[in-house]
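Batch manifest line 282
LIGAND: nicotinamide-adenine-dinucleotide
JOB: complex structure
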Amino acid sequence: MAIERVLVVGGGLMGSGIAQVLAQAGLTVTIVDTDRAALERSLLRIDRGLKYATATSVTIRDRISISVDLESAAIGADHVIESVVEDIRVKTELLRRLDDVCRSDVIFASNTSQYSISLLGASTRRPDRVIGSHWFNPPPLMGLIEIVRGVETSDETLRTTVALALRYGKQAIVCKKDTQGFITSRLIALFIVEAARIVEEGIASVDDVNRACVLAFNHALGPLDTADLSGLDTVVRVADALVEQYGERFRPPSMLRSLVHAGHLGRKSGRGFSSYDLAILR
Ligand SMILES: NC(=O)c1ccc[n+]([C@@H]2O[C@H](COP(=O)([O-])OP(=O)(O)OC[C@H]3O[C@@H](n4cnc5c(N)ncnc54)[C@H](O)[C@@H]3O)[C@@H](O)[C@H]2O)c1
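JOB STATUS: finished
ARTIFACT:
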C-alpha cells in the first residue's frame, strides 16, 4: 500500500515540525491533538518555518490539516506517527485506540525519546507494525531519524520506515535492540544531567558550561541550551524513566526539577536555564 496520507498525533514542538517535513516531502498530513490551542500554535510554527522555504510554501501548507477527532482522522490514514507527551500511559492508550480504527496494514511509528518499542507494540494487535522513529528538534533542520526495532517489529516494517526517512530527506540510523533510551537519548540525557550538576554545584555558569561544549568539543549547541530547546519537562520525564532502567547516573539534579516545577520549561515558556524573548520566538 503506497503511503500518501499520514496522521501525526501530538501537535507540540515535535509533531508540528514533523508535519512540516512530511508536507514538504509531498505527503498529505493531518495533525491531531487533544488541545485545540496546541493545534493553532502548531500551525503558527509551521507558517513561520515555511517562510524560509520556497515560493511553494502555500502548496505545502495546504497539505496540512488539524483535528481534535482522533478516530475520524485515523480512518483514512496510510501511516501514523505518534508524537504525544512522553508518558507511557498516554502513549499506550493512544495506540490502543488507533489499533481499533486504523487499517491493519498501517505502521505506527513512535517518536518516543526512550520508551521500549516492544512495550508500545504490546498495547496493539500489530506489534510487528510498531516501530520507533525518533526525530530531532527542530525536525525541519535536523538531518537524522533514529529508527528503533521492537522485539516483534518485522523486517518489512523496518524497511518501510527506513525508506520513509529517506523520502523525508533525512538520514537513518537503526538501533538494532529494543533498549530504553536507544543511542541518542542515553547520550544526551547523561550530558544534560551532568551539565546541570556542574551548575548546581557552583562550579561554572550556565553560559560557560554551554560554551565549554561548543568550543572544546565542537558541539553545535551546549547541553543546557539543548535542554532549553527540547523542553525541560520532556528532559526530566526522559531522565526519570532512564533512572528506572539504568540507575542513578541519569537522576536529574533538584535544580532541574525545580525549574520545571516553577514552569520554566525552556524556550517554549521563555525561561529555562537561560531566558528567551517569546515575542521573537513565536
Ligand atoms: N522536545 C524534543 O526535543 C524531542 C525530541 C525528540 C523526541 N521527542 C519526543 O516527542 C514527543 C513529543 O514531544 P514534544 O517535545 O513535541 O512535546 P510537547 O509537550 O511540545 O507536545 C506534546 C503534545 O501532545 C499532546 N497530547 C497529549 N496527550 C495527547 C493525546 N492523548 N492525543 C493527542 N495529543 C496529545 C499535547 O496536547 C501536546 O500538544 C515525546 O514523546 C518526546 O519525548 C521530543
